[in-house]
Amino acid sequence: MGEIAIDVSNVIITYKLMKNFSIQRNLLRRDAEKAEEFEAIKGISFQVEKGEILGIIGKNGSGKSTLLRAIAGVFCPNSGTIDLKENTVSLLSLGVGFKDTLTGRKNIYLSGMLLGFTEKEIKKREKEIIDFAELGEFIDRPVKTYSSGMHAKLAFSITCNLETDIILVDEVLSVGDENFQRKSFTKMETLIQDKNRTVIIVSHNIETLQRLCDRVIWLHDGEIRKIGLAQEILEKYHIYMMAQAGR
Asked: Taking the model in full, what pTM does it have?
């Protein structure tokens, strides 16, 4: 095996399931600690080599986005470790990383600084980011006024033009109009040609993962059901989903 960029070891992530009470009542209830727990990720382990493109697929609720956000450092696992080997990482996901009251332009700088770039470095890429996002005058309007497609365009543009060692992509390659989808896909293909960059892509789109990924993890109910070469795993997943649909 080559140089390791991401090492996930025995990671467990759980959520507390709040009963149908108000937040205040849940906080005040003496038995709040005894709330039922849901184990979203159940002790999984895997490694990703530097320069590898790893896909993650699985039905809704299997823990894909939860795992990706833990790798990005959005939250910590309950147990186990995630070691990024001192690589810089960015997460491309709807609903993550923007301050809604700030304009798109200001969020470019906020996001860039959170990724570890200096204001000067961001300034050099600002026009490129804005041009790629195709938001026109909306770049100087608050992000809370954006549609989900506009949000995705800006997020994609920031992540792909302020390049980190590791890029995590969560279901955003299929967002936006057809022209933007085509452009973002081409941009992603260009980025992953850099063998120093490591990418994890979460998607339901088998064709996308076949085209972009070296290996794929099939995540099922918080566990790794299978992991291996993209073509092999995606064929097995497709057969499984067809069987489920035929029930």
From this structure: 0.83
